[in-house]
Amino acid sequence: MNPIFERQSVRKFLEKDVSETQIENLLKAGMQAPSACNQQAWEFIVVDSDEDKMAISQMHKFAKPAADASKIIIVLGNLNEAKISSMIEQDLGACCENILLQATYEGLGAVWLGFHPIEDRCMKIRKYFDIPDYCIPFAVICVGYPAIDNGVKLRYDESKVRYGGY
Ligand SMILES: Cc1cc2nc3c(=O)[nH]c(=O)nc-3n(C[C@H](O)[C@H](O)[C@H](O)COP(=O)(O)O)c2cc1C
Fold this sequence. Notes:
The protein is of the alpha+beta class and 166 residues long. Helices cover 32% and strands 18% of the residues.
């Protein structure tokens, strides 16, 4: 199985717990991502209380999958740790994608919920989890065992590719 081509967003989860070891594997995958100057300025909050998951699910209208996820990983960027802060979003994007791919590899389902740079969403999650000003609440990744397989459509589109120049 190639997780790149199997990955899909999963928004409905079974009532089955994802173990701490599995979450650790996802975090290891996230921290294995490339980053500018190898700055690795990411940090994570792992959420598994029902109350906290419900609170996240109400933070914006596309956040509902959080309610029945087994565990949630909040991906943060620590600006105090960054050497090139202007590149931190790219690092964090790579980190999130690694987490999603590892979830697929482990037979889990996951969905990335967008927070940064939407101010209202960031404010809510910052306040709820006491996230300091120097940390960007970049994204929320809901993880669980998939309840639905939506199938994957391959997206390769040769019309988007140019060779040798625009
Ligand atoms: C930056 C970003 C923000 C996203 N935000 C949400 C979100 O808030 N809620 C959600 O259900 N899916 C969200 N997604 C998932 C996308 O909707 C999904 O990746 C896209 O529809 C393609 O489907 P696929 O992941 O199954 O390939 C987000 C994905 C990215 C990369």
